Amino acid sequence: MSPEEIEAAQKELFGGLDPSVLQMLLKRANLDEPTKDNPLDSPNTSSQDAATTDANPTQAAPEIRIEDTSTQNDTSNEKPKHQSQAESTAPDTSKRVRWASVADEEEEEAGTTTTATSKTKPSPPSFSSTTTTNDPASNPPSTDSPDPNASDSAPSKPHWPQPQQPGDIDPQDPDFLQKLHEKYFPQLPADPSKLAWMAPVPTPNSAADYDSPYHPAQDSLAISQLRFDFRGALLPPRIARAVPVSKGLHHHGEAPEAAGYTIAELARLCRSSVAGQRCVAYQTLGRVLYRLGRGEFGSVSDVVPRGIWEAAEAGAVMRSLYEEAGMEEGRGHRSARAFAVEAIWLFEKGGWREKMRRGK
Question: Which pTM was predicted?
Fold first, then answer.
């Protein structure tokens, strides 16, 4: 085809295209052309891009150029410099497309580089310089900066009133337990009976000493307050106060100055989770029951023997002994089981059950 026929065919082809499609093609053709300045780009972005383009030349795709058909003859006689400037202008809808040659692309790249280096662009605002400046005149006053007029003694944190704490507690203080509760457990209700075992032993012949349920000056004693040693013997109040603490008979909270254990305390130790305490309780109760059956505390019709037996029944002493003795072989504590069997044997050996049946 002759150049005239090719030009006519191109004109016919682009004349039937949709303007939006033609605009899209024109945008693709101008990918290699420099764009407008972006205020967010760094000042040296265009220079770096131009230097990169010169250092790494690549063969770009053929570029579509638009020329005005009304001034075709005039522009063909102009110099290449004026032609490149006319081609870089914005295209119009009445223009046609011409395929650019390799020589035109090289000339355009040279012109772009020259324009990028010689043209002075306005420097975009630098955000880093704005944020890192230390000029107090340019920076607005900060709300977080300390006020120079404020007092230096102002607290940096909220101050909450603290209750006044009591001083150190003296263990020898008569009100030691009360002060202990006020210092460490002020929110809990006070129950002095729970801390009775921590109370110091009352001074002999003091008011607290006379209030003891096992004091020798008491006119009468409750049977439940009777105390026994580890051999099962009854300890009168006067003898109980004379026994030294090294005998191990003072590990109880009630009447701490008196040695020995009551039936209720021994029954409580029978249900202890500590095997050693159960062993001591079983052994002592077995000996007490043996002496009870032998009549050392009186006959069946007397008040003291019946009171001791009633205290043993109230504490479920026999049930604890039978449960421990009936433990299967290989389970439980072997020594506790042996002491429970011994206590039951001593109870049967004493004969208290037969005396109760006969009423003698």
Answer: 0.49
